[in-house]
Design a protein that fits this description.
There is one protein chain. This protein is α/β, with parallel strands linked by helices and 448 residues long. Helix content is 39%, strand content 17%. The chain has 16 helices and 17 strands. It has helices at residues 5-11, 25-33, 47-57, 104-116, 139-152, 164-173, 189-199, 210-222, 237-252, 274-286, 299-312, 345-358, 374-379, 385-395, 416-422, 438-444, and strands spanning 64-68, 71-75, 93-99, 119-121, 124-126, 130-134, 157-160, 180-184, 203-207, 228-232, 264-265, 291-294, 325-329, 338-342, 362-367, 405-408, 427-430. It is globular and about 80 Å long.
């Protein structure tokens, strides 16, 4: 159980030296108990006290990591219930389940298709994180399936077997990887604990109540295992939401360490139909799964889940931005048009996609507007005449084109007069308000 602020204060030097940035040791202790400050802020802790406080100072949801071939999936380390309170740090890993009794050709073809799936969303590459390989009872078949999958795609793995002996065969086939072992139950936790310790692998535990999960995690902690994953046995969306939320609330609000671990979710257990499985997966991503294992794969199913995960696990206080500067489209030359926009990712990629698909050459100047969209940045004074003029002058675009014409978004046409004063040697053109109208505007030659 985590220590209270008063209990932490008793272990501190109590010198009130203020080197931690707080006026008293008690103030520092209260912040430490609330997980709002790092333990290393106090420079006068002995190693004995530091080790005592390390557990209390750690995140309420512990970190668990899987790895394979240099790729790593980290989950946990979360400290809040809602992203607006602070942020969520480690997105849930999305895994696709493969069964060891599938024909070799079908198994490898499916694994290769999943591994090859890549999509870009506002400049961020998205893909499936790994595979969950399900044993159907035979250890040699399980091991063979793991090897067959790894031949075509060496990704992080979740190994699923109810029999510890079958799991042992699978682990030998996954030598050199760090998979998640799934799953220990109240009846089998001891042999699974031995396997997890032997292979330095995290272990998932499954039970149908929070009490049973907490009891198992406490027993496993006593064996020295610290990387655990909780799998509440649920059969519908309501029970999934209830169990996941209670686990997270107990960890965050009550500092209840036995439930302070990432959650493993199998949406298909709550929804057999494909359409309902994606709904269950979306709920699991939002509330509060660390690993989500899907039984089906298709671009239409996985893309919205990847986008949802990305949106939830970006810092709400920091807009997604692109690097300010000059961007080229379709091999522009010295006579190609020059356009300007802000560095908000969605704004940039809206314009970039239209320019790329149009086939028309052009230069795009991206101004540093602190990640705001055009109208938001203008309203905040981050995309005004002075900022646009500075971008034009300092970008080096004048050395790449022989004309002196720059197109500004139609949404900020009000800046025309000020810009003509700031850029007296340039001609200012008013472009369309929407990116979708940009190709037609350029083809019409109105800017020339």
């Amino acid at each position: 159980m985590a220590l209270s602020g008063i209990q932490i204060h008793k272990l501190l030097p109590q010198t009130n030296c203020k080197e931690c940035g707080f006026p008293t040791c008690l103030a520092f202790a209260m912040k430490l108990a609330a997980k709002q400050v790092e333990l290393d802020k106090c420079p006068h802790l002995s190693e004995e006290v530091r080790s005592k406080l390390a557990e209390s100072a750690g995140p309420p949801v512990r970190l668990v990591s899987l790895s394979a071939n240099g790729q790593e999936v980290k989950v946990g380390n979360e400290q809040v219930l809602f992203r607006h309170e602070q942020t969520f740090y480690n997105p849930p890993g999305l895994f696709i389940r493969l069964w060891d009794n599938e024909p070799v050709e079908a198994l490898q073809a499916k694994a290769a298709q999943i591994a090859a799936y890549r999509v870009e969303y506002v400049g961020m590459p998205l893909s499936v994180d790994g595979f969950a390989i399900q044993a159907t009872g035979d250890g040699s078949r399980f091991a063979r399936a793991i090897k067959e999958v790894l031949e075509v795609a060496k990704r992080p793995l979740i190994l699923i077997a109810d029999d510890p002996a079958v799991m042992a065969d699978g682990l030998r086939a996954a030598d050199g990887l760090r998979p998640l072992l799934c799953r220990a139950t109240p009846e089998t936790w001891e042999p699974f604990a031995q396997l997890a310790k032997q292979h330095n692998a995290p272990l998932a535990v499954r039970a149908d109540s929070l009490t049973a999960l907490a009891e198992m995690s406490q027993k496993l902690e006593k064996t020295g295992l610290t990387e655990l994953v909780l799998e509440p046995a649920v059969a519908d969306l309501r029970s999934m939401l209830l169990m996941h939320t209670l686990i997270r609330r107990m960890a965050i609000k009550k500092n209840f360490r036995p439930l302070g671990y990432p959650i493993l979710s199998f949406p298909s257990q709550c929804a057999a139909e494909e359409g309902l499985e994606v709904i269950a997966a979306a709920q699991a991503i939002a509330k509060y799964a660390g690993f989500v294992v899907l039984d089906r794969f298709s671009p239409a199913l996985i893309y919205p889940l990847l986008v949802q995960r990305t949106n939830i696990y970006t810092d709400p206080r920091k807009p997604v931005q692109v690097q300010p500067g000059i961007y080229e489209f379709n091999r522009p030359n010295e006579d190609s048009p020059v356009m300007v926009t802000t560095n908000f990712s969605i704004t940039y990629f809206s314009v970039a996609n239209e320019l790329s698909s149009s086939g028309l050459p052009g230069w795009l100047l991206v101004a540093d507007a602190e990640g705001m969209s055009v109208l938001t940045a203008w309203a905040a004074g981050k995309f005004d005449a002075e900022k646009i003029a500075k971008t034009v002058r300092t970008s080096g675009i004048s050395e790449r084109v022989r004309h002196r014409k720059v197109i500004i978004p139609g949404a900020v046409a009000i800046l025309l007069g000020e810009l003509e004063e700031e850029l007296s040697d340039w001609q200012i053109r008013i472009g369309p308000r929407e990116a979708v109208d940009l190709p037609a505007y350029l083809k019409a030659g109105a800017w020339a």
